[in-house]
């Protein structure tokens, strides 16, 4: 296949696909679709189950979207990233105060970042999950507030983007840097090649 559809609004996922040399077209939710509702956490749902369920739901929604639009067939890529600490999912912050609270919890700790990827092709959905560990150094309150005031935490799981200013808080990582950004390139490349994507 010469190109894929990307069912994600994330600029970081677009950048990472470009890094691989994958050509893609955007396949974004229509105005009437409640994309955020797909990311609601079910009661008692473990983070590992959550990220895979949400990614599959995003993929299924994208398949239906493609059919409604009558667009040419091509593989579809969907993904979801979640941050968790001690089994608790730390999603996108509601506001700046929530972002400060989330980052205060992450200060001086090790947390997990899970990114699930789904590629839809030939009537099947193939998934992979990448799990990485991130260690944050202790952060002072004023550092957190200054970072939140930059606006970078908005719309990001765990209230930070490792590719941005939050990098100064990261002591070390164990896992996939691109996975922490939002699209683990090793797993993504394998799924795309399995779907016959040429890049």
Give a verbal description of the structure.
- Nucleoside triphosphate pyrophosphatase that hydrolyzes dTTP and UTP. May have a dual role in cell division arrest and in preventing the incorporation of modified nucleotides into cellular nucleic acids.
- Its EC number is 3.6.1.9.
- Belongs to the Maf family. YhdE subfamily.
- The chain is an alpha/beta fold and 199 residues long.
- The chain is 34% helix and 25% strand.
- Strands 1, 2, 3, 4, 5, 6 and 7 form a 7-stranded mixed β-sheet that branches.
- A hairpin with a 2-residue loop joins strand 5 and strand 6 (124-136).
- Helix 3 (96-106) packs across helix 4 (141-149).
- The model has no long low-confidence stretch (mean pLDDT 95).
Number of strands: 7
**Mean of the pLDDT scores?**
95
Distance between the termini: 9 Å
| Poorly predicted parts | none
Secondary-structure element series: EHEHEEHEEHEHH
Label the CATH architecture. Alpha-Beta Complex
Reported for the largest beta sheet, the result is:
7 strands, mixed
Percent range of helical residues: 25-40%
| Rg, nearest Å | 17 Å
CATH topology heading? Maf protein
Give the helix/strand class: alpha/beta
- Please indicate the percent range of residues in DSSP E strands (runs of 2 or more): 15-25%
SS summary, helix count: 6
Overall, the morphology is globular
What is the C-level CATH assignment?
Alpha Beta
Tally of structural domains = 1
GO molecular function, one term: dTTP diphosphatase activity
Family: Belongs to the Maf family. YhdE subfamily.
Main location: cytoplasm
Catalytic activity: UTP + H2O = UMP + diphosphate + H(+); dTTP + H2O = dTMP + diphosphate + H(+)
């Amino acid at each position: 296949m010469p190109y894929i559809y990307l069912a994600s609004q994330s600029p970081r996922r677009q950048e990472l696909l470009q890094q691989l040399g994958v050509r893609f077209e955007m396949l974004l939710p229509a105005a009437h679709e409640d994309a955020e509702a797909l990311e609601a956490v079910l009661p008692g749902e473990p983070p590992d189950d959550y990220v895979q369920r949400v990614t599959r739901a995003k993929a299924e929604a994208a398949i239906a979207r493609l059919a409604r639009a009558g667009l040419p067939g091509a593989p579809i890529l969907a993904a979801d990233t979640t941050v968790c600490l001690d089994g608790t999912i730390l999603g996108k912050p509601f506001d700046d105060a929530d972002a400060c609270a989330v980052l205060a919890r992450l200060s001086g700790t090790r947390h997990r970042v899970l990114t699930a990827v789904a590629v839809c092709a030939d009537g099947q959905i193939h998934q992979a999950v990448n799990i990485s560990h991130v260690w944050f150094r202790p952060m002072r309150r004023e550092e957190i507030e200054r970072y939140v005031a930059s606006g970078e935490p908005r719309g990001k799981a765990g209230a930070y983007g490792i590719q941005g200013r939050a990098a100064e808080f990261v002591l070390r990582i164990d896992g996939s840097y691109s996975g922490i950004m939002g699209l683990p390139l090793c797993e993504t490349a394998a799924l795309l090649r399995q779907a016959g994507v040429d890049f």
